[in-house]
Amino acid sequence: MMPRESNLGRLRSYGACLNCRRKKTRCPAERPSCSNCVRLNQSCRYTSARRASREGQSTGWRLWKRRPAQVTRQDQTREELGEIPETTYSKNRNPSSGEPWYERVSPGSASRSLGFGNEDSNPHPSSTAVSKGLELYFHYCHRQPIWCFDQEDLGDKGILSDELVYSILALTARFSRELGQSPRYGNTARTLIMLRVANGTVDLEIIESLCLLAYSSFIDGDLHLGRFHLGLAFQLCRAAMMDMESGYPPESPLTERKKRLFWSLQSLEQAYGQQNGFLSLPAEILRPFYAPLGGDRGSQKELEPRPPQLPRDDIGCSTPSDIGIWSLAVHFGWVWSRARTYVSDCAQNRLKEPWRHDSMYSMILSDLTEVENKLPQCHRYDSVKFYERKAEELRTNRGYWMPWLKLQFTYHCILTVLNHPFLYIVASQSNPNLSIPNAFWRRSSELVLLHATWLVRMIDMVSEKKMRLIDPFFGHAAAIAATVHVYYCCAADSRLKQKSKIDFDKCRSFLKSFVPFSAACKALDQTLDKMTRIAYGSENVNDDWMPSKIHLSIPLMWNLLKVNCTPDLPEMPGGLLHPTLVPAIPRDDAGESSCTLEVIVAMSPDVTVNTTDGGQAVHMQPNMTNISSAPSTPGSVVLAEKLVAPADSLMMNTPWLWTGQFPDMENIDYQESDSAMGNIDGFSTWWDFGNL
């Protein structure tokens, strides 16, 4: 840490011209033009001593400088979002007394020198706004899912770069009353970043800024701009050898921070990156772990370059050898990226029989099992007992519980997508030679209903604990689960119908909670509403809607499963591409409603599910199948019915739903399970299966 300079030294630093201050190079301070600017044939300009002194005193982006008005504003912001104020971060709140390790310019002077307008027309953010932006960042975005820096990383410097400041504000403005300022902050940050790239002065904070901007764009649903930020950040990582393990010297103080940044970029790539195209990297290359391989191939694998190790993360770990929860979420996120590719292949009619050992379906299940085996006992559902935790405890430790929730949602979402009946119904229609065995239909039907129900259970627990989730992935997961539950709304069993309708309404309500701050989730919600109207066949549907058949829009179902819903262009200011380069996406509402799949009931089980206690109820004997007839409302948080599956229903008699293309399915001679299983005392309830 450099010692504090005298006042004379500080004033002398502000005697540099604007170009040298922007490039952070030593300025000869020759007037009227310094030799650096003359050599580069640039216009040399200086600020007055009085103005420079005022800027040096008022803009340093000191961290954690709290004021009473600021605290009130933050509480109002959280109240607007329905969030109970959480415990503030107190560790290293005060900046270091030393000067920053390299000279910074004030955002006000930088924006004016770059032609962003005068101070009145485009005022730079105040220190209070920056402090509030940092508070909101650590409250809503830190480790959720990106983990670029910790409070200690910022506190050691005491001052942030302009690029990082504007990027943080672009990401967090949506959570305050300054929502409309987010595009301006983002444009300013992007301009400053591109100048640093052009001048060859890229440092770690520049790549961190790109990571924040990419996440902000993905929340806004601007995939073009988000993937541009993400791709540029990856290219800079490659230039700095941050994509290889050998580029991380253990003695460097920035090693862990660089690892967190690299894997944060990978986390965004897993959830929002491009899944196809010649420029897309195969998911296998980005595997965050290495499976043991036998033979010569295993020896060759050991010699190949490896990506950096995951960062140190011991929050919630019981032993030093346990993998941190954030790192585990990255592992599951990698499998989720493979599942996204699988859906994309199915949409392009490239489905290989999923029951084959060399199919992508089997390989994804193998990878998921391998990752699940890495999950320490200390992070498992039955050990952490999320449903028993106090709401205040969960909010205090968001750094642990947000990655834990991401991991749980990802796990159940992977298995929901892989076994979604829509994939295989469409595949059977488009490929007459594809004969799907009954055993596969039965098993996949069990899994998709099981894990779609688990997603609703996770939504119930989050709602009960009043936890505000921000990552659009959670909205995506709810939309995917909703497509399963609307599918089962036409089951023959009235209880399964009612349960599916309630779960579907919960998914819709949860998705709508993301709409105020995420244009991506707003577009997803609009697509789900449109699909629902087509399925219902009416604009107005009452609570007694219990159909015997539904119509699923094939284009809308693919859009929901592939999360291919983007906002309309007028809702996306400050985009990347000129209109002549924007890919043409057909929007044929008539085609969406006419190209439908009719789903009818062929066979349905006697399904009863306990969704009120997180799966921790005492195991009940199979013959205890009494249910409550208490009414449920679509907006209710807790499912009114407490149901237990009989042994001869779900696990032995799958809920069979088919399309009109299978007219003979109703006459299939399906054998009921042996009743001997029902005589086993202490048989596990259906809900005990499938938790992580």
Automatic annotation (TrEMBL):
A single MF term (Gene Ontology): DNA-binding transcription factor activity, RNA polymerase II-specific
Localization (cell): Nucleus
Keywords from the UniProt entry: DNA-binding, Metal-binding, Nucleus, Transcription, Transcription regulation
Stored Pfam families: Fungal_trans (PF04082), Zn_clus (PF00172)
Compositional bias (Polar residues): 87-97
Main location as per UniProt: nucleus
Keyword Nucleus: yes
Protein name stated in the entry: Zn(2)-C6 fungal-type domain-containing protein
Organism: Aspergillus coremiiformis
